[in-house]
Amino acid sequence: GKEHWPRGEEAVWKSALRDVDADSPAIIKSIVNHVQTSLARQAYNLDDLGAYQAAALSVRDNLLVNWNETQLSYTRKNPKRAYYLSLEFLMGRTLDNALLNLGLKEQYRDSVKKLGFSVEDILDKERDAALGNGGLGRLAACYLDSGASTELPLWGYGLRYKYGIFQQLISPEGNQLEAPDPWLENSNPWELPRLDVNYEIRFYGHADRLGDGKGIWQGGQEVLAVAYDVMIPGYGTKTTNNLRLWESKPKRGFDLNSFNAGNYEAAVASSNSADAITSVLYPNDHTSCMYRIGKELRLKQQYFWTAASLADILRRFKQQGKPIRELPDFVAIQLNDTHPTLAIPELMRILLDEEDLNWEQAWSIVTNVFFYTNHTVLPEALEKWAVPLIEHVLPRHLQIIYDINLFFLQAVERKYPGDRERLARMSLIEEGQPKQVRMANLAVIGSRKVNGVAELHSDLVRTTILKDFVDFEGVSKFSNVTNGITPRRWLDQCNAELSDLITKTLKLEKEVWLKDLFKIKGLLEFTEDAAFRKEWWAIKQRNKERLAHYVQTTLGLTVRTDAMFDVQIKRLHEYKRQTLNILGVIHRYLTLKALSPAERKKTNPRVVFFAGKAAPAYYIAKLTIRLIVNVARIVNADPDTKDYLQVYFLPDYSVSLAEVLIPASDISQHISTAGTEASGTSNMKFCLNGGLLLGTVDGANIEIAEEVGESNVFFFGHLTPAVEDLRYQHLYHPVPLQEKCPALHRVIEQISAGLFNDAEVYEPLLNTIRQNDYYLLSDDFDSYIAALAMVDEAYQDRDEWIKKSIRTTAQMGKFSSDRAILEYAESFWNVEPVTVKKK
Ligand code: CR1
Question: Which PANTHER family match (predicted)?
Fold first, then answer.
């Protein structure tokens, strides 16, 4: 029938085209043109996916005009540029953001409507670009948005993985299963292949020293790096920056010799190994050692990407005809975690072996170009590469790393004569079988500045993992930039109604407050305005209904929307303590079961949402998912409690799912063991959307509380300085759980007794708590339960709760990623905004 596919109707299209004097003739023409030429399809024979593709290509045309003008103005003005090297860019969807930033949202809405489509349906056809694991990759995406919006000459460099983060499926028993994410299979309108921009990247072979620190590297395998460009439009500006992603290709297709000799397998193998480099994103989060990535392919990814990016950066620099010693005046490179640390020996190699500089000249350039951001103090996440592996894959780089280490340790020895232990701690090489290169140490000594991502985390970096380096180099090199989020995606796009209400209330153009987020402080004046509070609350309610609708259509489950929505969404990890949350849920369930029906009616109904992926090899994290799924199954089906407690695990967490969950939350949980979560960024997103925060005194939670006021957040748990002592007590003076925390003991024994099926399955998870309880669940459980009760109580006074919600949003100005990226530009890079002339 007419309501179904194909959506386009001849009459509708024709009349839209005839109406060229209507509002958006150019847009309609351009969409139709792309349908017919780019997609080679009949206008009247188009489904939503085709309409999405045509609209996207039409939007891309607009981006390209701005992109070209931006790049031209950079070339003409020749400013100092910044480059953000990140192995992960968790971009999510692009179309809606591009329309917003171009200021074309309304025109496109009208135009696609005239063609017989709904813009919501079209936007929903886009697949997430999920080239990242979690916070680190999403932060990179926010920084690109903010860099363009603040008109900074900032490019990103990354890899064009053929498969993004795996798709998560949940089996009937509640196990996580992983399926590949072939996100490019429907073609990607947002990328521009630059087949002419390519570099040859060498691996293996042999390296000879030539004296004076110089060397020569020959032989081995050469692979081609090909550029794909993704346009990054700024909000309310013409500036459109670039994200350049590299794809690996075999240098010359098949190896003809083997092919002619009839050895087809060997011929294809060489081509496979080149393609393999950018085939898949490693799904490990905080686990580079624990699960022994130690894999050659990951090392090859890192080198391939840093070498291609540096070659590209240097080629652009050299086009200006400046002498190489001026590189630090024109280039700043931010290393996102230690993943790109090979850029340091690679730049040394280029300067020594190709540019013929001496060691001092080369080292002085290197240490003025690079900046390093640390994102975690968890020891298992600090990257180390086995010396024999580096020697095999990158023989020349190993020589350079040894030379850097030699000069460095000589300097340390001069300052601390005879302090062998200090030398051993600071060395780039960790002794052992095999020896390993400590990438964080290399990143620190090769960089101009080192920063953490929230105040507490930066303090911990200075006083724990990098203390020796602070002593040696002075504290001023070690700094902080608290993370931020882009208010465009994380408020205006995901919560359009709230954004409109804010605009109306502040009586400001939305362009003004979305670019200077401190302006939302003006909302504070309206907390006492009952009509405003009513509107505020009605929007929260509609966002809850939108989420309930999502759950209904994807899982076929009915969520009560008159309950408090309690959300914890992030990667599954023991330190993030989703286990504490689900144990708290069970405690609530047991408590409810023990109440009379009349008493139950007085309780605060709650719906608890979980979402997040576990690293495929992270057994304990996967058991937590299984427990959540099975608790949900039992609790949601229990007639005694189902009106007061519901639990959902939403599979396949993504940026797009976060955009639905975050605006719907009343309370969100950020409950890491104190001192383990470097910053967190979803905490900022929830608070910006008027969701309150339940958390530990950790990461950016602390700074959020400083901004919004402690009375508007719910804190619990031990503080960072206590953690070490508590762990020591667990090891040397253990107290049986039953004595230490009877409430938690009762919960654990119920699981063990089979209340949630498969009793034996959970034993390894429960034993982590019964035994050394490294993440201190038993120390924090009672205060966690008390905090949950305070949340319930506060929610009963609905008016006061709404005031807290408004006050929270109003005081989140600091957490715009515009603020954060400008701190990097001003205090680290010395890079200034460049205005791109309006046509
Ligand atoms: C941290 O765990 C932080 C992001 C972005 C993560 C998280 O707290 O918000 O980085 N670290 O800075 C990480 O992924 C490998 O380390």
Answer: GLYCOGEN PHOSPHORYLASE, GLYCOGEN PHOSPHORYLASE, LIVER FORM
Atom of ligand 1 nearest to the CA of 135: 4
Distance 164 CA to ligand 1 centre (A): 18
Claim to verify: residue 243 and residue 322 sit in the same structural domain: yes
Identify the active-site residue in 300, 571, 730, 804. Answer: 571
Pair 712, 591 in one domain? yes
* Predicted local distance difference test score (pLDDT) of residue 45: 81
| Best residue for ligand 1 mutational test, from 378, 679, 701, 823 (most atoms within 8 Å of Cβ) | 679
Comparing 266-270, 335-339, 483-487, 835-839, the range with the smallest average pLDDT is 266-270
pLDDT at 630 over 90: yes
753 in a structural domain: no
519 is catalytic: no
- Of residues 685, 718, 745, 807, which has the active-site annotation? 685
Quick check: 42 pLDDT over 50?
Answer: yes
Q: What is the mean pLDDT of residues 403-425?
A: 98
Q: pTM of the predicted model, to two decimals?
A: 0.96
Q: Give the chain's domain count.
A: 3
| Atom number of ligand 1 nearest to Cα 679 | 8
Clarify whether residues 500 and 402 are in a common domain. Answer: no
- pLDDT tens, residue by residue, 249-274: 998 755 555 555 566 666 666 666 89
Nearest to 550 by CA among 535, 536, 565: 565
Q: Which residue puts its alpha carbon closest to atom 11 of ligand 1?
A: 375
- pLDDT of amino acid 64: 97
Q: Is residue 681 annotated as part of the catalytic site, yes or no?
A: yes
To test the ligand 1 pocket, which listed residue (453, 458, 677) has its Cβ within 8 A of the most ligand atoms? 453
pLDDT of 11 reads 75
Q: How far is CA 185 from CA 3, 180, 188, 679, in A?
A: 27, 12, 8, 35
Length of the chain measured in residues: 839
Q: Which of 286, 298, 462, 570 is catalytic?
A: 570
Range 593-604 average pLDDT: 97
Instruction: Tell me whether residue 2 is one of the annotated catalytic residues.
Output: no
For ligand 1, pick from 375, 571, 703, 815 the residue to mutate: most ligand atoms within 8 Å of CB: 375
- As a whole number of angstroms, the distance between CA 477 and CA 474 comes to 6
Shared domain check, 450 and 518: no
Q: Does residue 400 belong to any structural domain of this protein?
A: yes
Co-location of 655 and 549 in the same domain:
yes
Q: Which pairs from 530-534 meet CB under 8 Å and 24+ separation?
A: 532/505, 532/806, 533/799, 533/802, 533/803, 533/806
571 is a catalytic site residue: yes
Query: Residue 762 falls within a domain, yes or no?
Result: no
CATH number of domain containing 380: 3.40.50.2000
Q: Work out which ligand 1 atom sits closest to the CA atom of 680.
A: 9
Please provide the average confidence, as pLDDT, over all residues in the chain: 95
Measure the CA–CA gap between 713 and 465, rounded to whole angstroms: 30
Clarify whether residues 304 and 427 are in a common domain: yes
Domain containing residue 479: 78-93+128-483+823-829
Distances (CA, A) of 246 to 61, 92, 634: 22, 19, 47
Cα gap 784→453, rounded to integer Å: 26
CA distance 639 to 641: 6
Span from the CA of 382 to the centroid of ligand 1 (angstroms): 12
The span from the CA of 753 to the CA of 759, in Å, is 6
Q: Is the pLDDT of residue 3 over 50?
A: no
Q: Quick one: 467 and 535 in the same domain?
A: no
Tokens of 566: 């309690």
Both 502 and 467 in one domain: the answer is no
Tokens read off for 839: 């046509």
> With 70 as the cut, is the pLDDT of residue 804 above it?
yes
Which residue's CA is the nearest one to ligand 1's atom 5? Answer: 136
Q: What is the pLDDT of residues 171-227, one digit of tens each?
A: 999 999 999 999 999 889 999 999 999 999 999 999 999 999 999 999 999 999 999
Are 303 and 394 spatial neighbours (Cβ–Cβ below 8 Å)?
A: yes
